[in-house]
Amino acid sequence: MKRKTTGLSPKANRVLVMLESMLTAGIISVPFMTILYEMEIGLTHEQIALTQAAFTVVAMALNIPLGWVADRFSRKFANILGDFLCFLGLIFYAQAHTMLDCVLCETLFGIGIAFSQGVDSSLLKHFADKEDPSRDHKLFKDSFGKMSSLCQLICLVYYMIGFAIGDMNVRDIIMISSTPFIFAIIAGLFIHDDSVKLGKTKAEAKEKAENEEEDDDDTLFDIIKKTLRDPKLNIRIAAYMIAREMTHGIIWCFTPLLQFVGIDGKWIVLGWAANSLAAYLGTRLARRFSGSLPEWKRFAIPVTVITMAALAMSVNLSVFTLCLYVFFGMAQGWTSVTMMPQIKIHTKEKRQVTVESIAKVCSQLYYIIAVWLIGRAADIKLEYAALATILLFVPFAIPVAIRLKRLSESEKAEDTGSTAA
Length: 421
Fold this sequence. Notes:
- By secondary structure, the protein is mostly helical.
- Helix content is about 75%, strand content about 0%.
């Protein structure tokens, strides 16, 4: 049975998905939230940590189930609902006066992110593959890389806007931060989601029975089990976890590091802006050079770069060595282009959001452990945060790179054999 068509072409839908993702890529008020917590509401550091924990717990608990809901029913409306809940979270944050208010806002954010996370890239792959159904998924890879670049660029723009309006009342800044989500919701409404959904139609079930094919169970727990047991997926999820969290695990130290070398006040925002610019440059480098590299090298390059920069920072922390933090940003940008597409390409279309959610929850679990240990090291001496980053990631990165190399070689041999046949 043919699906209903819409006036929008796959290319137009793909552009709308990229626009929606760009608008929600960052939040203008992020560098100023500490001011709200400490000066406006009067929270202690422990209370701030508990407030942030509300977001983490909710997002991790709901990410996979709501990813499955998006795959089963509608990715489009999951994305819209997620953006709307984030919009509400910012509106309520502008009115927050107690710790309980902040917990409520972070809970809304957690639910919103759980609804929308992984939807944009899944829709992007669907529309790119409809437009160009080639086996190498070139259009999807190019579109994903472009979307990653634009998202990093919009983060840079948001930080510069934050610097420009930094003297305003923090609550007004938070209200301004909610505006892009309104436009993202509007863009999302125009997207036509005709992607394959989880669950079999009666015709599909009958066809499978007639052909005596193995029944493909699409329950949530079955997808989790199959994903974690799939050798082509679990090693790529491991690579994604290491490459992503190696840059992410130390990011919370960035502001203290800037303060340590004498940069303070509104100028810290420029430090964050510089990090976003470096990430944008990293996406551009990945788009330019990663396509010709084997998969294991695309993973090994950011890990090696971060290791060298972190080693220099652990030996001597100064304004000069802190400038090496730019390589963390560039590695972050490179990783954002190269890691997730490999997971998406090896995942069935109807499981796209669920599998990406599984990858991100695994990554978040790794992050929680890493950031706690890095924080303990930083409490002893700030320079030790960089050293802890090396010790927590490099020993795992080496065997993952070796397995990726072997997997790439076996897949290449399989492709050669199938082509010859």
